Amino acid sequence: MMFRLIKVQEFDAFTNMALDEAICEAVRDEESVSTIRFYTWKPSAISIGYFQGLKNEVNLEECKQQHVDVVRRRTGGGAVYHDTQGEITYSIIGPVDMFPKDIIKSYEVICQSIIDALKELGINATFSPINDIIVNQKKISGNAQTRRDGILLQHGTILYDLNVEKMFSLLKVGKEKIADKLIKSVKKRVTRILDYGDFSKEKIIEELEKAFSKDRNIFVSNYTQKELLRAKELAQIKYSSEEWNNMR
Question: Total domain count for the chain?
Answer without folding.
Answer: 1
